[in-house]
Write a structure and sequence with these properties.
The chain has about 40 residues and is mostly helical. The chain has one helix and no strands.
Amino acid sequence: DVKAAAKPARNLFAFSIVYLMSLFAALLVEALTGATTFSLIG
């Protein structure tokens, strides 16, 4: 069944979109706060 096979692909696509949005949000927060790269990590 094509729909059953497409479910993992849709889940991976949704995860990748959320991951990219969180990455860009982190970069935006870093730029707005004036933090240097990875200064919040250590």
